[in-house]
Design goal:
mainly beta, seven-stranded mixed sheet, 11 strands
Amino acid sequence: QVQLVESGGGLVQAGGSLRLSCAASGSIFGIPAMAWYRQAPAKQRELVAAITSSGSLNYANSVRGRFTISRGNAKNTVYLQMNSLKPEDTAVYYCKAGTSTWGRGTQVTVSS
């Protein structure tokens, strides 16, 4: 069973950048997809970005062109580079492996 730990969240001003990391306890090779989700207060959890084992990418319309998902060279880390952050990006960001393995999340707060 893969375990996931997110890091890199924090407080940043609008227009700033953050890079989130998701470290897996084991190899994520063979897991069909890794993804980042986020959940803002009183809102449903939503997909932010996903990357498949073949490298296909998918982004939410709200972050396309500002966020970039990538895999680390060691194949057990997934990153989310977030640029041009907006206050509406404020949320807890979660890493997901496959269909059912979640991390505990990392808080991202963007001040206006």
